[in-house]
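A brief tutorial aside. Many learners find it easier to grasp structure tokens once they have seen a single protein encoded end to end. The record that follows does exactly this for YkgG family uncharacterized protein. Read the sequence first, then the structure, and try to relate runs of similar tokens to stretches of the chain.
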Amino acid sequence: MAPDYYTKADFVDDLEVDPDRFDDRPDEETLETVVSNVEERNIVVHVFDDGDDARDHLADQIPDGAEVMDGHSTTLEEIGFTDVLAAADGFEYAGNALEEIDDDEERSTRRREATTADVFFDGANAIAESGEILGANALGNAVGAWPFGAESLVLVAGTNKIESDWETAVERIREYALPLEDARAREVYGQGSVVGKLVSLEHERVDDRTQLVLIDDELGF
């Protein structure tokens, strides 16, 4: 587990955010609708009841010898998958190399290169019932891999990230996920965060490139 590991429980009571609006899990019928609508966009969907099974599935997505990278994701931390990545058993995890780089320019270059990893894992910030998957981060070093860069993209989210429509999904990012991430960033980096880059995946042209792993639990920011 990373030393800068925080969950929403560390911040939510001190922030003016609305978990009742933005952090509830959907009913079974809604979940089935979401899965169908995401699949209609040529994105493979897997649904798991718990993080342990999801973590095992994620590990199985890494070919031997592959270069792997991830965006910072509280969900991946919570299910223990960041420990799997750091162990780098049978594959190359670019995040380990980044931690060894002291030069800012070199680190920035390597982060750009890492968006073209063989497999890129990231957490989704919101999912619309209509099937769009949304993600945001300040620099774009994570969501930069989403549209094209990574050969294989694996997105992970708790079902609490599902919202009724695209507009509400964007609101979730701005009004719920961002304040939580801003609080985390202030603790870890000494500065706040912004929605610098926001990506909405609406259709995948490349068969089997992108998958969404849903966990029926309240996870992440």
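Self-check: Residues 21-215 form a domain with the Rossmann fold fold (CATH 3.40.50.10420). If you spotted this yourself, you are ready for the next section.
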